[in-house]
Write a structure and sequence with these properties.
heterodimer; A: mainly alpha; 10 helices; about 85% helix; elongated; B: alpha/beta; 2 domains; eight-stranded mixed β-sheet; 8 strands; about 35% strand
Chain lengths: ~260, ~160
């Protein structure tokens, strides 16, 4: 009996939280005027979310591209089509790996930091203090971080893909010795600007919205204790990673079906 | 003072991100080779297009001259109607021959144009009269097996 009651309580709680999250997301959009009128606030947050994530994105992108070059070469060699290495590396990066891996790294690097920061602000009653001073904390704290994340994410994904292609080039052409001309020309004939690159950008914008919305909500909703903040940070990483992968499947099904 | 260095970093980040996008578009994607010059439309009817897809290339003497823009089934003739857009710079005679070819043994299919000898040139909206359909491997194998079977039947 007790167990059944616990299950019911949990499900009601989950629905209640989802509604609160939706209201929080709409409030963020509603009060985001400030983050564009006082663009300095957004720029400041872009420094902490975007610029500080640059190194991990660049290094990870290069190595993912190098692994793709190596593994792709080993597999394509069996079919005697090493010249298709360029299109393999570029297509997998631009369509899937660039947006998805950049978003996963962004969630664990910047998303968790955002949650911890806002959770601690709440625990140390800075959010309450703002409300007392008649400053709307959503407009002042949450919305600039949201837009900074949404703007940074596609830029980071593009950098990831570009570094990945460079890594694939280094391993494929410079180290292994695939023909350079066919590497680039096969890549260019396979990758379409609108179909592949723009869809990748759209994907990364969607991931940016999802990751920052989850991180901000988890931080804002965290119980104001040390345990509460640490739990919220963990939930941010788990929930955003799952959201990215599920959204990726849905978006891919819409974008690349039947082509 | 602190703020200006921060702005500089963010600016550099945005520039780098946009530059990466431009590099992807130009070097990785096909935007640099994108056909921005004027094109004219031609139609051709094929009894079987095999695996031809929209955006497949159209080549003449191996040079890319255009792209397939649309493939539909014409229910009056029950043949595939392939619409092609050809670069305005390239003109072809009226009796140009269009055939669906395959690049390599298992590669992509494309349309090859071999020009005829007539003096009149094709205009926008014209139809190519002489076409050759794609070779479908299954049909070839079927024919081969059929002829083998009839051979062995005759020899008995």
């Amino acid at each position: 009996m007790k167990n059944i009651r616990a299950i019911g309580h949990r499900s009601v709680d989950a629905v209640w939280r989802l509604g609160y999250a939706a209201r929080f997301f709409l409030m963020t959009l509603f009060y985001s005027g400030t983050s564009f009128r006082r663009f300095r606030l957004t720029v400041r947050e872009m420094f902490f979310t975007g610029v500080m994530s640059l190194i991990i994105i660049l290094v990870a992108g290069t190595f993912v591209g190098m692994v793709l070059g190596l593994q792709g070469y080993e597999t394509l060699k069996r079919y005697g089509s090493e010249s298709a290495l360029g299109s393999l590396v570029a297509l997998s990066l631009v369509r899937e790996l660039g947006p998805v891996l950049a978003a996963l790294l962004f969630a664990s690097r910047a998303g968790s930091a955002m949650t911890a920061e806002i959770g601690l602000m709440k625990a140390t009653e800075q959010i309450d203090a703002m409300e007392i001073m008649a400053v709307n904390p959503i407009a002042r704290v949450v919305a600039p971080r949201f837009w900074a994340g949404v703007i940074s994410m596609p830029l980071l994904a593009a950098l990831f893909s570009a570094m990945g292609v460079f890594g694939g080039y280094v391993v494929g052409v410079v180290l292994i010795g695939v023909d350079e001309g066919s590497f680039w020309s096969q890549m260019q004939s396979a990758v379409d600007f609108q179909h592949d690159i723009m869809n990748g950008v759209i994907k990364s914008v969607v991931f940016g919205v999802a990751v920052t919305a989850i991180s901000l909500f988890e931080g804002y909703d965290a119980p104001p204790t040390a345990e509460g903040v640490s739990g919220a940070t963990t939930r941010t990483v788990v929930e955003s990673s799952l959201a990215i992968l599920i959204l990726d499947f849905i978006l891919t099904a819409f974008m690349f079906r039947g082509s | 003072m602190e703020r200006t260095t921060l702005d500089l970093w963010v600016g550099a980040f945005v520039v780098a991100g946009l530059a990466a996008l431009v590099i992807l578009a130009m070097k990785v994607g096909n935007l640099s080779t994108y056909n921005v010059s004027d094109t004219y439309q031609l139609d051709a009817y094929f009894t079987n297009i095999g695996g031809l897809k929209p955006k497949a290339s159209i080549k003449s003497a191996g040079v890319l001259v255009g792209r397939v823009t649309g493939i539909t089934l014409d229910t009056n003739r029950y043949e595939a109607k392939v619409t092609m857009s050809i670069d305005q710079r390239y003109k072809f005679p009226k009796d140009t021959f269009a055939s669906i070819l395959t690049s390599g043994l298992l590669g992509e299919q494309y349309i090859g144009l071999s020009p005829g000898a007539e003096d009149k040139m094709l205009k926008n909206g014209d139809e190519l009269k002489h076409t050759q359909s794609a070779m479908v491997l299954e049909n070839l194998i079927g024919k081969f097996l059929y002829s083998k079977a009839s051979e062995s039947g005759n020899s008995k």
